[in-house]
Design goal:
Blueprint lengths: L3 E4 L4 E4 L16 E4 L4 E5 L5 H12 L3 H10 L3 H26 L1
Parallel strand pairs: 2-4
Antiparallel strand pairs: 1-2, 3-4
Length: about 100
């Protein structure tokens, strides 16, 4: 896959719709996905809301736990809530993988 690094500190990259994982049925609707081989969150740069969700995800990732809780309590728009819930799952996977590496 051909990715462009967006934010190396946060592990965020982007790619064209053609590069979105092959097992996804409708790549045009994918905003971002987790690429476990590189531990990256990869954004579909051709998605209509690419810039909006890129800023949202980067901002969310830079919050501490308390700030994240406050943020989540204020989000009531389903179109925003769903991707944030997916991001939360991705961040949990990342945390577990990193804990396993540290323990080894």
């Amino acid at each position: 896959m051909n990715f462009k690094i967006v934010n190396s500190k946060l592990g965020i990259a982007s790619c064209s719709r053609d590069q979105v994982a092959e097992d996804i049925h409708n790549p045009s609707t994918v905003i971002f996905f987790y690429y476990q081989k590189r531990d990256w969150i990869v954004f579909n740069e051709e998605h209509r809301d690419y810039n909006l969700f890129l800023e949202l995800v980067q901002g969310y990732m830079e919050l501490n736990d308390r700030q994240r809780k406050v943020f989540l309590d204020q989000v009531d728009i389903e179109e925003v809530r769903k991707p944030i819930n997916i991001l939360i799952q991705i961040l949990r996977i990342r945390r577990k993988c990193r804990q396993k590496i540290k323990a080894a």
